[in-house]
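Dig into these lines:

——
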Amino acid sequence: MDIAYMVSTRSRCNRRHVGTVLVQGKKLLGTAYNGAPSGVPDCSEAGCMIAEELETVVVDGQEQVVRKQRCIRTIHAEQNLLLFTDRADREGSSVYVTDEPCWTCAKMLANSGIVEVVYHRPYAKDTQLVSELMRQKGITFRKLEGYQPPADTMEGSILD
């Protein structure tokens, strides 16, 4: 997880720095972070492109409307990891990611050949959907408890 946090420092996203690492056993197979597509102005240069969605969820038998804001300029760290690693390397591998994957990234990870996702910071907006998908796919999905990231990696990583 330390490596994922170090990789996250490369992100230029104003809202959240996310890093991810693909490993098989002790072998490092790839790293990635969130950011704009290569050669395109990033969020620190051009600002965030925020899209807002409303979603109805049921909590304790009561329907609630949840407002989700997402930056649509940024390619998520998990997506970049999948773009820049080979399927053969991903088969049977684990992904360590600083933040719990969003619903879109979870679907991509579920189809990628990995067998485990380990994350540190929760992303409550999609937790229920993501947890259920991982359970259905038989992918180990766990929050790393009691972990303290390297102190110099936390700038830009404070948004809920």
Q: What stands out?
A: Helices lie at 2-8, 43-46, 77-83, 87-90, 103-110, 127-137. Residues 116 and 140 are 4 Å apart (CA to CA). The first strand starts at residue 19 and ends at 24. The longest helix spans residues 127-137.
